[in-house]
Each structure stands twice: as C-alpha cells, then as structure tokens.
Amino acid sequence: MALIKGRRFLIRVCVGLAVSVFAASCGSSALAPNRSESRPETPAQTVELTVSAAASLQDALEAIAPEFHAAYPDIEISYNFGASGALQQQIEQGAPADIFFSAAAKQIDMLAEKGLILKDSRQDLLTNSLVLIAPVQSQLAVTDIAQLKDAEIGVVAVGEFRSVPAGQYAEQVFTKLNLLEPLQSKLVFSNNVRGVLAAVESGNADVGMVYATDAALSERVKVLATASASTHQPIVYPIAVVSDSPNPEAAKTFIAFLQTPAAQTQFKDFGFGVVDP
User: Fold this and answer.
1) How many domains does the chain have?
2) Residues 256, 187 share a domain
3) N or C end of the chain: smaller count of CB under 10 Å?
4) What is the pLDDT of residues 126-174, one digit of tens each?
5) DSSP result, 11-77
6) Is residue 3, in this structure, part of any structural domain at all?
7) Residue 103: inside a domain, yes or no?
8) Threshold 0.70, pTM exceeds
C-alpha cells in the first residue's frame, strides 16, 4: 500500500513538473518570438532630398526626375527652383537644402567661403549661352546686341543684376559693348530668368536677355542675336552638396546620376552643353 501511494506521489510530482515546464515555455515564447520563424523584411527607409536649383534648370531636372527615381526608388527628390542668388541667401539663412545647383560659380563660391558646402562634392556640370530675344511677331531689325544702342525700343527685360546670374551676365555684356548707360532708362528687372522670358512673351518688353535654353522652350519668342563668349564670363552651372545636409551620401548619388549618359542626353535635349566629368 505504501508502495502504491509512493508511486502516486511520484506521478503527481512528474505531472506537476511537466505542467510547469510547459507553462514556462509558453510564457517565454509569448515574450520572445521564435528566432527560427521567418519574419517580414523591414522596408528600406525613404530618403528625401531637397534640391535648390536655378530656374533655368527646371524643365530639364523635372524630365530627369522619373529616370532617377526608377534607378533609386528609395530616394525622393523635391525641387526648389529660383534665382541662384536668392537660393544662396536661403541656404545662408538655414533653409533646408541638400543640394545647390547654381547657374553661376559666384553663388557657390560665396557659400564655400562660409563653409556651407562640402568641397569634395562640387562639380561643374553644364554650360549655356546668353541670347537676345524678342516677341515672335517683332519687326525689330537687330542682328547684333551692339545695335541696341540705336534701336527703337522702349523696354529691355533683364534679370536682377545682383541676384540673377542671367542678369549678371547681361550686365557684363552691356558693359563690354558700352550699352549700360544708353539702356539704363529702358531696363526692367525680373527676379529670375523665367520672368524675363514671360515679359517678352507677353509683349511687355521689346527685347530681353535670357539663356539659349530658355528661348528654346518658347514658341512665342525668337532669338535675334547670341552674346559673344568674349563679352561675359563663362556660363557654367556648378553643383554641390550643402554641408548641413542630413543625407550627404544620397545627395552625392544624385549628383553622380546627373553625370550619367542618360541624364546628359536629357540636358543636351534641352540645349545645355555638358562638362566632361
């Protein structure tokens, strides 16, 4: 009898231990998932880049954006277009920007002096030319910019001399050709080159100075003359990563993509010259 009771006690102890082990096992599995089980992959985090770019680049960059996104779906591009001088000031004042794509070296030089761009990221990407345009229906008989001195015109549209690179180049041309003083009272200023184009398109200006790439976009204007390269500084478009960018590697990836054959073809289609890497 004692033996039977002993066996029953032993059975109860074994059963109790088994229950305790099972409960502990269930409790631990509730707290920590089985590492051997397959888990869904964590989706890659999307990086958002803000590109502050000269207004004259708008059409070309917007055309390139889908190609870049197809190659790098985890990098989203947001453009901020405007006059290079205004964009430079925004960056100096702390406006968010990962990349600065200027229509002239001056603006990037000024940011570099203040340590606001990554020096090893700077590249000269594109070139352009400056042209004199008039409304397509204009009867103005001008084939050389120097002829503006004696031409019967009332309004000459240009970019702001201080902040718009196209305006700065126009000022250099007018100075070189001794036109600045004769045209002074006729000048009407715009805060970006697209504003100059719009003024001529609408007929609010008799002529205007814009980039060749801007003139090529409009069927409402015609090119009267092209400024000689000897009358202004070289028109070069530099690009660089802003030093405060939270995503400098992604920004460098975008700049490298703009130097690929596919992107360069797009730029050429819009009339830009391409600087060899």
Assistant:
1) 2
2) no
3) N
4) 999 999 999 999 999 999 999 999 999 999 999 999 999 999 999 999 9
5) HHHHHHHHHHHHHHHHHHHHHS--TTS--PPPPPPPEEEEEEEEGGGHHHHHHHHHHHHHH-TTEEE
6) no
7) yes
8) yes
